[in-house]
């Protein structure tokens, strides 16, 4: 099979915390050698030109909408968006129609990803049947079918008893529970963060406490059951405090933050822009500062997009009627660089760690490393390259980005999955 040589890059090893100049030789979809002045007798040579050569980025929280909502996104279009955003693997959430709560749907998702043939798609299975929060799914069966975690993302698990039982079984099966933390009696009717801005705009609010109460509950249940718990889309300073304290006590909890939550505040809702409507909602300046501090001190393990595409028709309505969610795959790397790396919140290695080894460890994947013998999943990043976000150029079907018109610096220029170039921005010399 084909050989591929990546010449003259700066290789990022997030596990070891190092960046060093090296070439990478790829054979049969695997990394065959890493070193200086490698040669390929036959095959393709890509001149990386001093750019960063990272393990393929992993987004552990996306919504690919298939089966059931193919007008918003399909596994094929989502895969293209991921590749264009520099992601070689994603974990997709089960809030499809039908819900991914049985073996047939998990197998279907994997088959569609295989047909799309671009990136790796790891399905997250529902925690409860229909994500209704009542009866548990067949967890062992779902794991065998290929599920990498359990979650009812999109809906809160309102019963503590159900969540406790779910964690007991998930622990036995050996997969983590990903929790969408939202106390439904507090969030009911809310469409944005509850605070000064919601008062000014006259919109019903979702208080920070709606998230924090459930973060506290699920930490207590994780400690009680010993089940690894991953908190999805952390948005408040109070959640950060709870997670930091739980980690210090050794509770098996991990957490993620989205680029929109570390970049924007509820001020983005002014003008009733439905692209800024998301769950959990955009919060305040203090929350954004706390999220950045938590990224820097390791309280937040992962950066994940919560890529949630909706159609233009669905979003082009009064703010209160629009669905929650924004697309994120094609702006994530640029936002991480522009908002975190360039200002010095995270070093390049720390940022890449939260997009590779950390999500891989949480989901029990072999991906996220550059090592001889590993799958040749690689993302090439140009830290100096800039662009202005233009949603009309997205490979995703979704156009619902609040970052339209924003200038980003630090962008993916090529994405390689199992030794195959699945995205090429056209800036590298290929011979
Ligand atoms: N984040 C969102 O605002 N929306 C997500 C659901 C979710 O992640 O909870 C969606 O599926 O559209
Ligand atoms: Zn969610
Ligand atoms: Zn989600």
Description:
With 431 residues, the chain is of the alpha/beta class. It has two domains: 3-53 and 375-430, Roll (Urease, subunit C, domain 1); 56-363, Alpha-Beta Barrel (TIM Barrel), CATH 3.20.20.140. Helix content is 30%, strand content 23%. It contains 14 helices and 19 strands. Strands 1, 2, 3, 4, 5, 16, 17, 18 and 19 form a nine-stranded mixed beta sheet that branches. A hairpin with a 2-residue loop joins strand 2 and strand 3. The model has no long low-confidence stretch (mean pLDDT 98). N-carbamoyl-L-aspartate (NCD) binds next to loops.
Features:
9-stranded mixed beta sheet; 14 helices; binds N-carbamoyl-L-aspartate; hydrolase; 431 residues; metal-binding; zinc ion binding; DHOase_cat; binds zinc ion; TIM Barrel; 5-stranded parallel beta sheet; alpha/beta; Urease, subunit C, domain 1
Over the alpha carbons, how many angstroms does the gyration radius reach?
21 Å
The total tally of domains equals: 2
CATH homologous superfamily title of the largest domain:
Metal-dependent hydrolases
What is the overall number of helices?
14
Percent of residues in helical segments? 25-40%
Major beta sheet, specifics?
9 strands, mixed
- Strand percentage: 15-25%
Protein name: Dihydroorotase
Function: Catalyzes the reversible cyclization of carbamoyl aspartate to dihydroorotate.
Enzyme class: hydrolase
Family: Belongs to the metallo-dependent hydrolases superfamily. DHOase family. Class I DHOase subfamily.
């Amino acid at each position: 099979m084909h050989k591929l040589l990546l010449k003259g890059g700066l290789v990022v090893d997030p596990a070891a915390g190092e960046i060093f100049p090296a070439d990478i030789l790829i054979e049969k979809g695997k990394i065959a050698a890493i070193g200086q002045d490698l040669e390929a007798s036959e095959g393709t040579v890509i001149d990386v030109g001093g750019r960063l050569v990272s393990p393929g980025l992993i987004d552990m929280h996306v919504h690919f909408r298939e089966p059931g909502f193919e007008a918003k996104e399909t596994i094929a279009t989502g895969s293209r968006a991921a590749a264009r955003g520099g992601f070689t693997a994603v974990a997709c959430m089960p809030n499809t129609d039908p819900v991914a709560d049985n073996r047939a749907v998990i197998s279907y998702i994997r088959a569609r990803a295989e047909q799309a043939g671009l990136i790796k798609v790891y399905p997250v299975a529902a925690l409860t049947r229909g994500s209704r929060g009542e009866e548990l799914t067949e967890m062992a069966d779902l794991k065998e079918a290929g599920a990498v975690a359990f979650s009812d993302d999109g809906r809160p698990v309102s019963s503590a008893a159900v969540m406790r039982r779910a964690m007991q079984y998930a622990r036995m099966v050996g997969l983590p529970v990903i929790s969408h933390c939202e106390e439904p009696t507090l969030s009911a009717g809310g469409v944005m963060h509850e605070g000064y801005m919601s008062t000014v705009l006259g919109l019903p609010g979702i208080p920070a406490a709606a998230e924090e109460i459930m973060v506290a509950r699920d930490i207590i249940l994780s400690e009680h059951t010993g089940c690894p718990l991953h908190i999805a889309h952390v948005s408040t300073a109070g959640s950060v405090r709870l997670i930091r304290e739980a980690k210090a006590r050794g509770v098996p909890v991990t957490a993620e933050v989205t680029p929109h939550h570390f970049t924007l505040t509820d001020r983005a809702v002014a003008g009733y822009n439905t692209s800024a409507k998301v769950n959990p909602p955009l919060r305040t300046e203090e929350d954004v500062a706390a999220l950045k501090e938590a990224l820097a001190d390791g309280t937040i393990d992962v950066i994940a997009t919560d890529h949630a595409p909706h159609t233009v028709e669905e979003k082009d309505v009064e703010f209160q009627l629009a669905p929650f969610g924004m697309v994120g795959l094609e702006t994530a790397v640029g936002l991480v660089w522009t908002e975190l790396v360039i200002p010095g919140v995270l070093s390049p290695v720390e940022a890449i760690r939260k997009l590779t080894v950390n999500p891989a460890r949480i989901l029990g994947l072999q991906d996220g490393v550059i090592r001889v013998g590993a799958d040749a999943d690689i993302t090439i990043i140009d830290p100096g390259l800039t662009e202005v976000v233009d949603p009309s150029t997205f490979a995703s079907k979704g156009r619902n980005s609040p970052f339209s018109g924003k200038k980003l610096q630090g962008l993916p220029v090529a994405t390689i999955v199992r030794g195959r170039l699945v995205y090429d921005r056209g800036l590298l010399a290929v011979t």
